[in-house]
Amino acid sequence: KIPHVFSQKVMNEAQHLSRDIHPEPEIMDFRNQHLVTIDGADSKDLDDAVYCEKRPNGHYMLGVHIADVSRYVKPGSPLDEEAYRRGNSVYLADRVIPMLPFELSNDLCSLNHDEDRYAMSCIMDVGPDGKVTTEKITPSIIRVKRRCNYEEINKAFDEGIAPDDLKALLPMLKDLDDCARLLRQERHNRGALEFDFPEYKVILDEDGKPIRIVKRNRGEAERMIEDAMIAANEAVARFLTRDGFTSIYRVHDHPNAEKLEALKHLAAIIGYPLHLPEEVQPRDLQQLLEKVKGSEVEQVIEVMTLRSLATACYSTDNVGHFGIASTCYTHFTSPIRRYPDLQIHRIIKENLRGGLSEKRIAHYDKILTGVTIQCSATERRAEEAERETIKLKKCEYMSKRIGEIFEGVISGVTNWGFYVELPNTVEGLVHVNELHGDYYVFNEECMELRGEMSGKTYKLGQKIQVVVTGTDRLTKTIDFIPAKNMELPEE
Fold this sequence. Notes:
Elements lengths: L7 H8 L12 E2 L6 E4 L8 E7 L5 E8 L10 H9 L3 E2 L4 E2 L4 H7 L7 E11 L5 E12 L2 E4 H10 L4 H4 L2 H20 L9 E6 L5 E7 L3 H22 L7 E3 L5 H14 L11 H11 L5 H11 L4 E3 L23 H14 L5 H42 L5 E10 L2 E5 L5 E5 L8 E4 L4 E4 L5 E3 L3 E10 L4 E6 L9
Parallel strand pairs: 1-8, 2-9, 16-21
Antiparallel strand pairs: 3-4, 4-7, 5-6, 7-8, 10-11, 12-13, 14-15, 14-20, 15-16, 17-18, 18-19, 20-21
Helix pairs in contact: 6-7, 8-10, 9-10
C-alpha cells in the first residue's frame, strides 16, 4: 500500500519548475565557503551540506545547510499533496520509492556539487564544552565545492590517504571532526543512548538476487555528520519553541514501567542486574549499555533495551526526546525525503518574515496535528516494508546455504523453540521439535529451554552452532537445528 507511481499532474508540475537561481535581498549567500556533502557513495538525493571552522577563541562555527524544498513544493499544490500522501521516501532492498519525483529529489533540490542551490542554513557556535548557541537560521544560496563519501573520508582520517582534490579540504574536515566529538561528548554527558548495532547490507545482482551480505562499517565520517544533523535539529527546535506557537516535534517518550520490568528481568538472567529509579532517566540505561560494551551479550542487551523504549514519532506536543536526552527536538535536515522537515522549513520562513499572524497560527493549529498523525503512520509503514524486504532477501540468500554450519547467539527463547541470530544479522528458529533425545520445557522466569532428563539448557545470550535446514519465502522464515543434532558425513 505504498504509493509508487506519480500522476501525470504531479510530473507536469515537477518538470515545469523554474531552474533559475539568483541572489535575493532576504537570503544569505554562502557560495564563497568551501561547503561539502558527505554521503554514501551510491546516494543520489543529497539533503545536507556542511562547513566548520575553528575560531580564535577555541569555539567552532558549524554551518549545516539543508536543501530548500519549500522553495519548489508549495502548500496545496499537486506536488505537496503527493508528498503528504507518501510522507517519506522508502528505501527497500532493491529500490528507492521517493517522496518527490526524481526531477526534484535527485536534481533540482539535491545539493549536487558545483551547482547553485537554494538552501535553509543553520549557523551555530559550538563551545569547548559542546554547548550550542544558534547564531542564525536563514534561507540561503550555496554551492557545494565537493561531493565526498564516507569511505574516502574515513580512509583519509584513518590511513592518511586522500585524493588530491580532497587534501585541501582536510583541515576543514578535521575541524568538523573535532567539533563533532565535542557535540557527541556533550550528548553523552546528559545521558544520551548510543546503540552500536552492526549494520549489514544485502548486495543484489542485476536480477535482484542476493549474492552476499556485507557489513557497513560506521566510521568517524558517519558519526560526525550525524552529530552535526542532531545539533541542527535541536537548534531549530529551540528556535520554534521561542514564541510558543504550534509546531512539529520529533518526540520519544519515557519507557513504560512494564517494559522496563521486562528489561530488568532479562538483564538479570544474562548476568547484568539493572537497578532503576522510579523515574528512569536516559543515563540509567546508558550505564547498562556501557557495562556490556565488548561483551558476548552486547548485541542481545542492546536489542532488549531498544525494545523496552517507546516508539519515536511526530507530535505537536513537545515532550522531549528520551533517546538523545533532549528537551527539544525536531526534524529539519531531510526535506527531500521526509514531509515533516518540509513543513518545518515553511514554518521557519514565516517566523523569519516577521512572525506568524493570528490567522496563520490558527491555520497551523488546525493542520499540524493531522500532519503528525499521517507522517508517523507513513513512517511505520515504510519501516515495516523495509524490514520485510530485507527479511525476504536474507531468506533467499540462506536458501542457497542449506546444510551449512554457522555460529550464532540465542536471541530469543519461547515455548516453541529458540531464535538464533548470526553475526550477519540473519535470524532463524530452532523449533523445539528439532531438539531430539529429550523433552524440553520452557522456563519463562529464566528464559530458557531445559531438557527434563539431561538438564541441558538453551538460554538467552548463549553461543551455539546451527545448521540451516530450510527457508520459506512466503513467511520469510529460516529454520535451523543445532549442529550437533545433525549427522555429518565422515571425512
